[in-house]
Amino acid sequence: MIQDRHNQILEWLQEEQTISTGKLSERLHVSNMTIWRDLKLLEQQGLLRRVRGGATAVARETQGSSLHVSFQLNPAVHSPTKTRIGRYAAHFLVEENDNIILEGGTTVSSMVPYIDQPNITILTNGLNTMLLAAPLIGSMRVLCCGGVLSEYADSFVGPQAEAFFSEFRVNKVFLSASGVTLEDEFTDPEPLYAPLKHAMRRSAEKTIVLVDSTKFGRRTLNQVLRFNDVDILVTDSGAPQDMLDAIAVQGIEVHIAP
What we know:
The chain has about 260 residues and is of the alpha/beta class.
C-alpha cells in the first residue's frame, strides 16, 4: 500500500540520511516514476528534501503533522481490496497516451497513485481524485468538472457535470457502482449519478467498471448501468463465481485483481 511504502521510505531515510531513487525502486519493487512521485509528495509535506538522483532526510521536528493529513486524502487507505483493484486497473488497463475519465469514488480514485504511464490525461468529477492527482501534476494532466457537490463520494454531479464530460472524447472511462445484481445490473443510491455515468460512458471508446466483491448481490436505489453498457469488469477473488459467469455471458470481459 502507498502508506506502507511512504513509511518505509521515511524510515530508511532516517537510518541512512540520503538514499537514491534507484535504490528505493529496487528495494520496493516499483518503477523509478513511482518513486519520483512518492518523493515529490513527501517533499511537499515537508517530510524529506529531494536532491539530484534521490532524497535526503529532514529533521523530525520540522516534519509536523502533515503525514496524517496526506494519508487521509487517500480514500482507499483502509480498504486493501479496493487498493488492489485500483492498482490492477492502473497497471493493466491504462496505456501510454491514454485520455481517461475517472469517476469520483473510493475504488476508482485508488487507481491514481499507481498510474505511471507517460502522457496521461485524467478527467474527473471527484474531489478525492483531484487531491490524489495534485502531487503528480507534471507527469499527468488533470481536468475536473463543475456542478453540484454531492456529499455522496465527495463528487460533482448534475447538468453542469454532464455537459462537461459530453464535450470530450476519451479512450476509457472507469466507473463504479454500489450494487450489482443479475436482475437490476449496476445500481447506486444517488439518482443524479445515472445521467452522469451515461454522459461519461458516451464520451469513451471503452467502459470499465471497478467493484469489489461486497457489492455483488446488493441492490441499491437506482439502476445506473446495464450490462450491455460495460466492456470490462474488474473485481476481486471474493466475488461469487456464478454471478461472474452470468455476467461474462453478457459479453463483459471479467478481470480478477490478484
